[in-house]
C-alpha cells in the first residue's frame, strides 16, 4: 500500500472514529484527558492502520480503552506524588466529592470491569460481539460478563434505594 493509499484510507475512516471515540472518552474522563487520549488513539490507529480490521470501530474502542487506562494510571501516580509532597509541606488534601446521582453511585460501586462492559453496551450501543473485540475476549464470555454485570448493577441500585430502570407492575394485585 502506498503512502497516498494509507492516507486516503485513514482519512476515510477517521471522521467516524474521531466522533465515536470522542463521545466514548467524554463519558469517562475530563475534557483535557479525553483530548490527549483521542490524539494518542488516532496516532496508534495511523501507525497500525494495516492491522486495523474491517470493523474498525470496536478495534479503535479497544485502543482508546487501553490508552485511557494508561492515562488514568499516570494520573493516579501524579496524585500519589502530590499527596506525598503535600504531606511533607503540611497541606491537607481533600478527598473527592461523592457521586450525587444514584446511577453514578451504583456504577462507582461496581468493579471496573463490570462498569466498563455496561458502558460499552449502554453508552456506546455495542453488541456483545463488538464488545468482545474491544475487550479482547470471546463473544460468549462477553454475554456472560454482561449478564452478570447487569445483575450486579441491579443489586447496587437496590442498595441505594433506586429503581432498577423500571417500576414493577401492581396491576391485578390486592393491597
Order of helices and strands: HHHHHHH
Count structural domains: 2
Question: What characterizes the major β-sheet?
Answer: none
The radius of gyration over CA amounts to: 20 Å
Describe the protein's architecture and organization.
The chain is mainly alpha-helical and 175 residues long. The protein is 70% helix and 0% strand. It has helices at 3-26, 31-47, 56-89, 102-108, 112-122, 128-135, 139-160. Helix 5 (112-122) crosses helix 7 (139-160). It starts with a helix and ends in a 15-residue tail after the last helix. The model has no long low-confidence stretch (mean pLDDT 84).
Tags for this entry?
mainly alpha, Rna Polymerase Sigma Factor, Chain: A, 175 residues, 7 helices, Arc Repressor Mutant, subunit A
Task: Give a quick summary of the entry.
With 175 residues, this protein is mostly helical.
Task: Please specify the SSE layout and strand pairing.
Layout: H1 3-26, H2 31-47, H3 56-89, H4 102-108, H5 112-122, H6 128-135, H7 139-160
Amino acid at each position: 500500500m502506498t503512502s497516498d493509499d494509507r492516507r486516503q484510507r485513514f482519512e476515510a475512516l477517521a471522521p467516524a472514529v474521531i466522533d465515536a471515540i470522542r463521545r466514548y472518552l467524554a463519558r469517562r474522563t475530563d475534557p483535557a484527558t479525553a483530548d490527549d487520549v483521542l490524539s494518542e488513539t488516532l496516532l496508534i490507529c495511523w501507525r497500525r492502520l494495516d492491522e486495523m480490521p474491517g470493523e474498525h470501530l470496536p478495534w479503535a474502542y479497544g485502543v482508546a480503552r487501553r490508552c485511557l487506562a494508561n492515562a488514568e494510571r499516570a494520573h493516579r501516580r501524579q496524585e500519589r506524588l502530590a499527596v506525598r509532597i503535600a504531606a511533607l509541606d503540611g497541606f491537607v488534601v481533600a478527598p473527592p466529592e461523592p457521586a450525587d446521582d444514584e446511577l453514578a453511585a451504583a456504577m462507582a460501586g461496581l468493579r471496573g470491569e463490570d462498569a466498563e462492559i455496561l458502558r460499552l453496551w449502554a453508552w456506546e450501543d455495542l453488541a456483545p460481539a463488538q464488545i468482545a473485540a474491544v475487550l479482547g475476549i470471546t463473544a460468549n464470555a462477553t454475554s456472560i460478563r454482561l449478564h452478570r454485570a447487569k445483575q450486579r448493577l441491579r443489586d447496587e441500585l437496590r442498595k441505594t434505594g433506586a429503581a432498577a430502570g423500571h417500576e414493577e407492575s401492581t396491576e391485578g394485585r390486592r393491597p
